[in-house]
Structure formats: structure tokens, C-alpha cells
Amino acid sequence: MRPAGDGIREDPALWTRPEWPEGASARGSHTGAGPYDGRVDSYWAAVVWSILPTIVICVVFWFILRSILRFDRTERRAYARIEAEERAKRGLPPRDAAAPTAD
Fold it and tell me: Which tens digits make up the pLDDT trace of 79-89?
């Protein structure tokens, strides 16, 4: 004796896909000949289009990081120059000569 089910497994007529009206598909408003309408014709074009956003984000990140590091380097140079000028005005030795040695 078989257990009672929902009837779908038992009735082979329910296994088939329903017919869609002309111009419609299971995915909605897609009207192409098949599930893929061919906007990207080749495999390599699809590869490039899928990797391109990652490459663009990496390049933008690299430029931002590079500009931050360059700004920091030039800012440290400017502060060192200002500090050297102030030390010279006050008659103090340059910063490198004022640092004690570890000997």
C-alpha cells in the first residue's frame, strides 16, 4: 500500500512544462529566441566584462592609496623644513645632531 501524496508525483500529466503564449517566457518579459539573447557574443568578451569591475575598483583603490602616501610624504618634508627653520631661528642644533647616540 502506497502512502497518499500530493498527486504530482503520481500523475505524469503534471510533469510537463506549461505552454507559454507567443512572445512570453518563463523568465518574464524576455522575448529572445532562447534563454540567452547573445548580447555578449563570445566567451572572452563575457570574461572581460565580468572581471572589468574588479579591475576598475582595484585601480581606483591604488590611486587613492598612492595619493594618501604621497601626501603624507610631502607633508612630513614640509614639517621637517619648518622645524629646521624654527630650530635655526632659536639657535638650536639641527635635529639629527641634537639626537643622542646609543653608544
Answer: 999 999 999 99
